[in-house]
């Protein structure tokens, strides 16, 4: 996903292009798009121009088209971000876009994706299992379910929706996003090896981050270089054809992805993981524990079974925005919600 132009005005009277401010929103779309591809098409699926697209693929694309009624459109992300303290046209940090995607996923009853944003550098297993299996009733908590029926979800017919519900009868597929700050103005080199190892996990979706006010979607590494997709190309907005097919060439790379030295990455990032089943999540937790015991680098976050006692009792407390006005200096190095992060250092 890249910058687009000439789409319907956001909010009816807002911008018609996201050039210059929407790069982190596009990176959020990319990491979520990868999760949806794995959810509906499988991890081994690959796009081929010569083959007719699958119905699920068209449904995923429809969810991201630049129009107000797309579940994960730029319009929806920008307008939902207002609730996170971001005006339309303002640059997002990784944590903000993670929180917005979490809220938008509630309305996508076709994918039935459980999005968990792990705050305070801590992944709490109990919280995630409560989210993905609310019917087991952990103290009466449950994730939001939409009421009422709709004939289509993201352009997908009811039969496919029923199939999706059957597949997720025991576990709602999990998108786990972990916002982190791995240093002050530069990444602490003690975390570099651990970050590399995260890319090797089979559940990894990559990392959203980049340079200050210049976001990228990192999908892997070679040696000391990170491989990333760059949204900073402005393309015309895409309109579906009369037969509901979506011209999709501009949603796929026509050239090799970019590279940058790992030390150049801004320390404010969000790492993403996808677990289709409970076994996938249990396996991910096992791999997290192995990573925490390696001596190659410092752990980037903590994995715990239950919520620590020092955590706030109410989830709402975690969503409070800090009450201060951003200066240019703070915008240079910090997301506006960085007070929610614990600074990690040697």
Number of domains: 1
Strand order of the largest sheet: 2-4-10-5-6-7-9
Instruction: Extract low-pLDDT stretches.
Output: 139-164, 313-339
Mean pLDDT: 84
- How many strand segments? 11
The number of distinct helices, counting runs of at least 4 residues, comes to 10
Span of the ends, CA to CA: 36 Å
**Main pleated sheet:** 7 strands, mixed
What class, by secondary structure content? alpha/beta
SS strand fraction: 15-25%
- Cα Rg: 19 Å
List the helices and strands and how they pair.
Layout: E1 4-5, H1 23-40, H2 55-64, H3 74-80, H4 94-105, E2 114-117, E3 122-124, H5 125-132, H6 158-167, E4 174-181, H7 192-200, E5 204-211, E6 214-222, E7 225-229, E8 235-236, E9 258-261, E10 268-275, H8 278-292, E11 302-304, H9 315-318, H10 328-333
Parallel strand pairs: 1-8, 2-4, 3-11
Antiparallel strand pairs: 4-10, 5-6, 5-10, 6-7, 7-9
Helix pairs in contact: 1-2, 1-4
Keywords: Autophagy, Cytoplasm, Cytoplasmic vesicle, Endoplasmic reticulum, Hydrolase, Mitochondrion, Protease, Protein transport, Thiol protease, Transport, Ubl conjugation pathway
Family: Belongs to the peptidase C54 family.
Protein name: Cysteine protease
What do these coordinates show?
The protein has 346 residues and is an alpha/beta fold. It has one domain. It is built from 10 helices and 11 strands. The chain has helices at residues 23-40, 55-64, 74-80, 94-105, 125-132, 158-167, 192-200, 278-292, 315-318, 328-333, and strands spanning 4-5, 114-117, 122-124, 174-181, 204-211, 214-222, 225-229, 235-236, 258-261, 268-275, 302-304. Helix 1 (23-40) packs antiparallel against helix 2 and helix 1 (23-40) crosses helix 4 (94-105). The chain is globular and about 55 Å long. This is Cysteine protease.
